[in-house]
Amino acid sequence: MERQELKDIFDEVLIEGEAKYMEPMSAHTSLRIGGPADIFVMPRTRSSLMNLHINCKRSRIPFFPLGGGTNVLVRDGGIEGVVLSSMQFRNKEAVKEDDTHVYLSVDAGTMLQGLVNFSRENGYSGIEGLAGIPGTVGGAICGNAGAYGYEIKDVLVSVERMDSEGKIGRVRADEIVFGYRSSGILPGELVLSAEIKLRKDEKREVSARVDNFLKMKREKQPLREMSAGCVFKNPSGVSAGKLVDEAGCKGLRTGDVEVSRVHANFFINKGKASASDFIRLMEEVSRRVKEKFGVVLEPEIKVVGRDAVN
Ligand SMILES: Cc1cc2nc3c(=O)[nH]c(=O)nc-3n(C[C@H](O)[C@H](O)[C@H](O)COP(=O)(O)OP(=O)(O)OC[C@H]3O[C@@H](n4cnc5c(N)ncnc54)[C@H](O)[C@@H]3O)c2cc1C
């Protein structure tokens, strides 16, 4: 769709928030890679969000929900249609409690680390292993984020979502199929908020567990570099990082993307990497692992968007 055509459509809709045309996605992803989104929208209110959704559907404009952008690789041609950021919706509050648990209502755009810090400050247990995972609660739910035996699904009571028809409803967590780094949330759906149940515990103990997981993460992962976390899912019973390492790929480089020397399942943008460099490196690493171990690696990161037009 042409830029002017999109502008005409969107100027008609009252959006309480911000809309940017041809916004580079490299500014919104932890990899700092990605071509422009036709429109990047940050609605401020629920009504503008719904308005936007209805308008996209009526005009058949594709839309892509984005959280912290820490698990996506956006291709160099950018994203067609609307990228919808949930980062402005960040409210979290305790809604009820009993003797053993506290129940929180958490907006999708809340940073997962904000939630981990809140749980640690208040002595609430259940998400200690998620310490150090960047991104939002909405993104964590969509990919069932987890580490060290903890997964977000284990503390979820329900999810409030907008379906592809624009209808808002709440689903119980046990009605959603969660798997290893996957959920039954469909691409046309938008997670708005979630109810989360945490166990009351000793502050000191929760804090010690969080510190311990953070220490392990810092020692084993290149957290200060530009990455999107683990590139490949662990095949059953084996670590993808170990396979990549033993296939001799640590330090392997395509353009400005390098297989981390700290953790072989992290690919690092060393400066001005492109998505096509990244994808070529993924293909080469997959080829070497297949050749050496006969194992087909499956991407954990979401590769989205269109190829660059040369
Ligand atoms: C240094 C580093 C370490 C990491 N460590 C871990 C780890 O230990 N464990 C782990 O599981 N992951 C890890 N990750 C990956 C990533 O942080 C998680 O997957 C995170 O939960 C993604 O959240 P996000 O908000 O950034 O999602 P995004 O990257 O923005 O989006 C991911 C997917 O979710 C969808 N989505 C996002 N928000 C919504 C919404 N509100 N409604 C509908 N769909 C939505 C997007 O469309 C996209 O398909 C790591 C990443 C980095 C950079």
Describe this structure in words.
The mean pLDDT is 94. Helices cover 27% and strands 28% of the residues. It is globular. α3 packs antiparallel against α5 (203-220). The two termini are 18 Å apart. It has helices at 3-12, 46-58, 112-122, 137-143, 203-220, 240-246, 275-293, and strands spanning 17-24, 36-43, 63-66, 72-74, 79-85, 92-97, 101-107, 124-125, 146-147, 150-151, 156-162, 168-172, 178-179, 182-183, 190-200, 253-254, 257-259, 267-269, 302-304. With 310 residues, the protein is of the alpha+beta class. The strands form 6 sheets. Strands 6, 7, 8, 11, 12 and 15 form a 6-stranded antiparallel β-sheet that branches. It has a 4-stranded mixed β-sheet with strand order 1-2-5-3. Strands 16-17-18 form a 3-stranded antiparallel β-sheet. Flavin-adenine dinucleotide is lined by residues 30, 64-72, 86, 108, 133-136, 138-140, 142-143, 145-147, 181, 185, 190-191, 221, 223, 227-229, 302. Flavin-adenine dinucleotide (FAD) is lined by residues 30, 64-72, 86, 108, 133-136, 138-140, 142-143, 145-147, 181, 185, 190-191, 221, 223, 227-229, 302.
